[in-house]
Amino acid sequence: MLGIDTYKHTHLAVVLDGLGRHQGSLQVPASDAEAAELLAWAGSHGSPQTAGVEGTGSYGYQLTRRLQGAGLTVVEVNRPDRANHRRKGKSDPVDADAAARAVLAGQATAVPKDRVVPHCWISIDDVDAGRNKGLTSNEHNELVELRRRTWVLEMENEIRKRASAYRARETVRRFMGRIGGSCGRELRGSG
Question: Contact 16/3 with Cβ under 8 angstroms?
């Protein structure tokens, strides 16, 4: 298990084994080249499969992408409680260790947020601006509304058909009851 405390200029990593025993720690400058060093170092401690990282959306963003690219599962770990920090004192190794332990204990399970703009947003904007072919946002919304209206009309039509069939059956029953009753009287009266 790899735990990483990220900062603007440096990252501090701690490796724990499956039982939570400290295996080693390493501080590296915050750069892509040093991320490769961190991965190599982590691999020398048994190739951890998961990393708990503080700040995946800010200082640890590039490192998070690098770790994911190397096949590690990255879990977002919240920054430690400030009151707890004041009691125990600020310490990068303690924070990195706490990040790894939070993942080991199942307390940290959040998937890092991706800052990349989804491709479909760009495509929709291109269609709306007339740069690509396809339905514009307004046409799409109109189509959705027309489909909804069609569904409502089909449901209303089905209800009317069923109500009409029910009325027809009731009418036939009443009619048959009148015919059956009057036919029986006529037959009895004539005999």
Answer: yes
Kind of pairing, strands 10-16 and 22-29?
antiparallel
Could you tell me if 1 and 103 are in contact, meaning their C-beta atoms sit under 8 angstroms apart?
A: yes
Contact 82, 98 (CB under 8 A): no
pLDDT digits (tens, 9 = 90+) for 98-118: 888 888 888 887 777 665 555
On whether the CB atoms of residues 48 and 15 are closer than 8 A, the answer is yes
Full DSSP string of 124-176: HHHHHTTSS-S--HHHHHHHHHHHHHHHHHHHHHHHHHHHHHHHHHHHHHHHH
Tokens standing for residue 112 = 């890092």
Q: Which residues pair with 12 in a beta bridge?
A: 5, 27
DSSP 51-95: EEEE-TTTTTHHHHHHHHHTT-EEEEEPPPPHHHHHHH---HHHH
Contact status, residue 99 vs residue 107, Cβ threshold 8 Å: no
The two structure tokens encoding residue 17: 């084994």
Task: Compute the half-sphere exposure of residue 67: CA atoms within 13 Å on the CB side of its CA.
Answer: 29
Summarize pLDDT for 53-78 with one digit per residue, the tens.
988 877 888 888 888 888 888 888 88
Q: Is the pTM of this model over 0.70?
A: no
